[in-house]
Amino acid sequence: MFLQVSRGRQKLADSISTCKVLVVGAGGIGCELLKNLVLTGFKNIEVVRPVPAVCLCGCAS
């Protein structure tokens, strides 16, 4: 029984580590999602941020 569970977990871990994930947006919710994906074991993550970042400190002007 334990061997079957171990094999099942290994298959799941292999599937997660090779799965491709696309995250659109890296704002407040996107950052939390990215953190959770990495901690879960996803390794192939691509992040697309459609809105350009805005410098709020005024140093870019």
TrEMBL record:
Record Gene3D superfamilies: NAD(P)-binding Rossmann-like Domain
Annotated THIF-type NAD/FAD binding fold domain residues: 11-48
GO molecular function terms attached to this record: ubiquitin-like modifier activating enzyme activity
InterPro entries in alphabetical order: ThiF_NAD_FAD-bd, Ubiquitin-activating_enz
UniProt xrefs under Pfam families: ThiF
Protein name (record): THIF-type NAD/FAD binding fold domain-containing protein
Record lineage: Eukaryota, Metazoa, Chordata, Craniata, Vertebrata
